[in-house]
Design a protein that fits this description.
Length: 105
Amino acid sequence: MATPRRGLRDIRTMSDLLTETSNPQRKFLKLAMLAMEKVRRSKERKSARQRIEDTDSRLAEVDAESEKLLRLVGATAGDERGAAPKGDEAKPAPRRSQGRFRLRY
């Protein structure tokens, strides 16, 4: 009688002997990886909060500056409304286009 051929499934390895419950090193490694991820995510959160605070402060500065400029424009526009135009009537702007687009070589 011939012996049956042994295949890949018949080879015994050490992975059969080690399981999650019998390998505490894997648990400690997973705990360490989770702790590192927690630290990294905390840094990301802190950085994101700082960016939000910076953006909010810049938006407040922009609003304050735009209000200041609007007040200045409003004050100068009110002064110029009643004033008579200086010199002749407003001249039309010179025409820059000659009709079609031309290229010179």
